[in-house]
Design a protein that fits this description.
The structure holds two protein chains of two kinds. By secondary structure, chain A is an alpha/beta fold. Chain A is about 45% helix and about 20% strand. Chain A contains ten helices and nine strands. Chain A has helices spanning about 5-15, 35-40, 45-55, 85-100, 125-135, 150-160, 175-185, 190-195, 210-225, 230-235, and strands at about 20-25, 30-35, 60-65, 65-75, 80, 100-105, 120-125, 140-145, 165-170. Chain A has a five-stranded parallel beta sheet, with helices on both faces. Chain A has a four-stranded antiparallel beta sheet with strand order 2-1-4-3. The radius of gyration of chain A is 20 Å and the shape is elongated. By secondary structure, chain B is an alpha+beta fold. Chain B contains two helices and five strands; from the N terminus they run H-E-E-E-H-E-E. Chain B has helices at about 10-20, 65-75; strands spanning about 25-35, 45-50, 55, 80-85, 100-110. Chain B has a five-stranded antiparallel beta sheet with strand order 3-2-1-5-4. In chain B, a hairpin with a 4-residue loop joins strand 2 and strand 3 (about 55). The chains are: A alpha/beta, B alpha+beta. The interface between A and B is medium-sized, with 28 and 25 residues.
């Protein structure tokens, strides 16, 4: 394989964009297919490439009479947690173990203290500022757990705008109804608001913060593995 | 460029690029097919240099030794190889997968 192919693949990976490396062993030919170019590909190959991006599964395929190997490189999923609260203390280490490294954002320095969050990426800043340096994207999950509108609302809108694969918000149905009204007033569409998982987490009867963290993480994994891609591409 | 979400010190493809940039002969091994229980999924990489240094994995350590020695050949000749590994007793290779699965590994030189 020519090193230029490898460089092209790595450049996409560094930019957190999904990319496929196609290898045709019979001819030793290679082709780099960034996700942005997949839609324009015709024929059987186009179909298979789009399916591979959709599932994230690498594998051998026969397309247009040729045997190829498609290696799919998906960006590392990550989890941004708004709120350095009790739930986040349990969620961050669990998420890291599960392969969804977490970043915690909370402008309240009393909450966002390194003592409370050892070994976690912790940003004691407003989401407005913190998200500028590390923008949200389609391979990021966002969980807003402060239930303080001043802190959560901006981040929720940003996550919906960026097409995050998961957007969840803590709070009762009543709290969420008020939140929906505020987001509508901020210009967020009703269809987008419906993407928010609220009350947050799968329904396992979670009671204490660590159990709620499990419920959230389970929902994040489900969203990533079932790929809310239609929703994301609609948002893009 | 921001690669904060890639592990520069452990990522086989970044290491392959780095090794190539420093003028080493490099081969890339990729798991292209698995049957039954296999320790590493399709698409997993092992990068090997001409001296047999390697990073990444194509199995749980069961067949890396054989892949590395084949890869050193591939770096020399430039001809890619398709290697197949099954359980230890069933293959021509001296190594095998104790888990009982089978894997196919494509090894090619980075030019």
């Amino acid at each position: 394989m020519d090193v230029s192919c490898l460089k092209a693949v790595n450049a996409e990976r560094r930019a957190r964009r999904a990319v496929i490396l196609l290898t045709e062993p019979a001819t030793q030919a290679h082709r780099v297919i960034p996700e942005a170019e997949a839609a324009a590909l015709g024929g059987e190959l186009g179909e298979m490439v789009r399916k591979a991006f959709h599932t994230g599964q690498s594998g051998a395929v026969t397309a247009d009479g040729r045997e190829c190997f498609l290696n799919v490189y998906m960006p590392q999923p990550r989890l941004v947690v708004i709120g350095a609260v009790h739930i986040s203390q349990a969620l961050a280490p669990m998420a890291k173990v599960a392969g969804y490294p977490a970043e915690i954002i909370d402008p309240r320095t009393a909450f966002a203290s390194p003592e409370r969050f050892p070994d976690v990426e912790l940003l004691a800043e407003w989401p407005e500022d913190a998200l500028k340096a590390r923008p949200l994207d389609g391979y990021t999950a966002l969980a807003a757990v402060t239930h303080d509108p001043k802190i959560d609302d901006f981040a929720l809108k940003a996550a919906l705008d960026a097409g995050c694969f998961y957007v969840g918000a803590l709070g009762s149905r009543k709290t969420h109804a008020k939140r929906a009204e505020r987001l509508l007033a901020m210009g967020v569409g009703q269809d987008q608001i419906e993407r928010i998982q609220a009350p947050i987490g799968v329904n396992i009867g979670a009671l204490v913060p660590a159990e709620i963290a499990v419920a959230i993480l389970a929902q994040v994994i489900e969203a990533f593995r079932s790929r809310g891609r239609e929703a994301r591409s609609a948002a893009a | 460029m921001d690669s904060v979400h890639l592990d520069e010190t452990r990522d086989p493809l970044l290491i392959a690029e780095d090794w190539k940039n420093t003028g080493r002969g490099v081969a890339l091994a990729t798991v292209v097919e698995t049957w039954g229980s296999a320790p590493r999924p399709v698409g997993s990489h092992l990068v090997i240099d001409e001296d047999g240094n390697f990073h990444g994995s194509v199995s749980g350590g069961c067949v890396e030794g054989a892949v590395v020695s084949e890869a050193v050949d591939v770096i020399g000749t430039g001809d890619p190889k398709l290697l197949e590994f099954g359980v230890a007793d069933e293959t021509a290779w001296r190594v095998g997968l104790s888990c009982g699965g089978r894997i196919k590994v494509y090894v090619e030189r980075l030019g």
